[in-house]
Amino acid sequence: MAATARGLIEVRDFCLRYETMEGAVEAVSEASITVEPGEFVSIIGPSGCGKSTLLNALAGFLTPTAGRVTVDGEAVSGPGAERGMIFQQYSLFPWKTVRENVEFGLKMKGVPRSERQRQARTLLGLAGLTPFENHYPDRLSGGMKQRVGIVRALATGPRILLLDEPFGALDAQTRLIMQQILTNMWQRLKISVLFVTHDIDEAIFLSDRIYVMTARPGTIKAEVAIPLPRPRQPAMTLSSEFLGLRRGLMSLIREESIRAMGGEVSAEAMKGLAINLEGQDLAAVL
Amino acid sequence: MEAVALRSPGSASPETRLPSRSEPAGRAGPPPAGGLVRRWLRLNRGQIRAVAIGLVSLALFVAAWQVLTANRVSFYVRFVNVPTPEDVLQRALLALKNPMFADHVLMSCRRILFGFLLAAGVAVPLGLLMGRFRLLREVAFPICEVLRPIPAIAWVPMAIMLWPTNEGSIVFITFLGSFFPILINTLQGMAAVDPVLVRAARCLGAREGALFREVYLPASLPQIFTGLTVGMGVAWVSLIAAEMISGQFGIGYFTWEAYSLVQYADIALGMITIGVLGLVSSFAIRLLGRLAMPWSAAR
């Protein structure tokens, strides 16, 4: 493919504010990230930190209050097939068979029926899904559904792939297999990937670099390079290097998670749970 | 109607129980013909059971009818003038040979077809558009909510004033009866469309027209068909009422006329005919739904 060199993602000074009755809420504040062409980058952070917000802005579903969001230097102005997205909820069309799901993006591009059938069959063959091409998604397991989701997003030949906790709903075993499948596909296609997760191990195992986000208002707290060699093997997760990275990232995330929980709102919530803090700081108790 | 709905869960359990009982050692080749019949019987045990029980229960109903009418029971409820099943059967055999009766039935069917198709043809697209475009919804919804609670029968005098022919007003009332259930259900279907599917489609390059065709419409289809089924039921209710009041033909008119002419057996015949027609038409819609939504039948 000629498009291998492209796929530069740049987010500069991204801010997102919205109005409520209590005043303006800042969800994301001055976040900047870069994904080089062909790079695999993850964003981790406590829940509600705005990692999915960044992803949605890149997909074109929302515009930032301030800041720039560009892909290959072009400002993102709406959803498009050159930016593939994969959702946690699989999001396959239940009324389309596996093959029709994969064909969807090509159909939107106006590719003639026989041609898109041929392409979809080839891709499904590569993903080992040929026996299921005429099944409706209802009959597939979660892992298989997400495999179809990935194949569907890749079918149009996107420059970048955005994944929003794609394996969050899968069991641990299936998740490991899916991570392997994703890395294999990424290494073959050399496509830029931005991966949002709250699973630290998953982020380390998959990524070249990891951005750690702070609790709300979300901003980039740290950027961690993952120097583990490729191709990565499941056994690497036990190496001292991996565990060292894990420990470092854990403490970064923990600080933020505690901050996210220990804010004014959460202290109230803890009262509601009838946990007696006896005047101590929540962080100290934990 | 209920019997059909209840049948499917019943049939599922023997299917799932089957493998452990009947296939101890992997299946080798097709079983002999006698085995095939037995296997079919076993696999469809749930359905066969439901049909058998249904037939027995219908037979008991007719038997009770026979006992009550043949003995002219009059215990608060008076069965004195109610025709026996036998009387009705005789009238039915007579009616089947009479072209007038066929005309009545055909007339009613034609009115249902026009009224219902018109309602579906307007309500479904309107519901889809109202679900998608807020302004249209904000404009049209209040009008619908005001008109919706008015029973179709209450429209009869107004319909007679509005339409130059009797035929026109009857079709109009049938239309009104089925219009609102179809519209409301289509709207609900649109409101329940999973936003993630819409986002997924847009990420794959779908524009407005394609979103409608490929996402909103198929996602709303189950609700639309619920609306069509309910709408068909209300269409019959409205049609019969309209025919009884202002008709000169039709099965509703036939039933009312039988009362005026003291043809009591014909009253029951008319009622049973209406029941059968209603059953057949809602069955047809369910069949259509299954054809239009192969993915839900695969479950």
Offer a quick outline of the entry.
Chain A is an alpha/beta fold and 286 residues long. Chain A has 9 helices and 10 strands. Chain A has helices at residues 51-59, 98-109, 113-126, 142-154, 172-189, 200-206, 240-262, 264-272, 282-285, and strands at residues 9-20, 23-35, 40-44, 66-71, 74-75, 83-86, 160-164, 192-196, 209-213, 220-225.
List the strand order in the largest sheet of chain B. 1-2
Order of helices and strands of chain A: EEEHEEEHHHEHEHEEHHH
Largest sheet of chain A: 6 strands, mixed
Count every helix of chain A, treating DSSP H or I runs of 4 or more residues as helices. 9
Say which CATH homologous superfamily of the largest domain in chain B is assigned.
Answer: MetI-like
Count the domains of chain B: 2
Helix content of chain A: 25-40%
- Oligomer designation: heterodimer
What average pLDDT do the residues of chain A reach?
Answer: 85
Order of helices and strands of chain B: HHHEEHHHHHHHHHH
Structural class of chain A: alpha/beta
- Beta-strand fraction estimate of chain B: under 5%
CATH H-level superfamily title of chain A: P-loop containing nucleotide triphosphate hydrolases
Gross geometry of chain B: flat
Task: Examine the secondary-structure arrangement and name the CATH architecture of chain A.
Answer: 3-Layer(aba) Sandwich
* Global mean pLDDT of chain B: 86
Rg from Cα of chain B: 25 Å
Family (chain A): Belongs to the ABC transporter superfamily.
InterPro entries (chain A): AAA+_ATPase, ABC_transporter-like_ATP-bd, ABC_transporter-like_CS, ABC_transporter_ATP-bind, P-loop_NTPase
Pfam families (chain A): ABC_tran
Protein name (chain A): ABC transporter ATP-binding protein
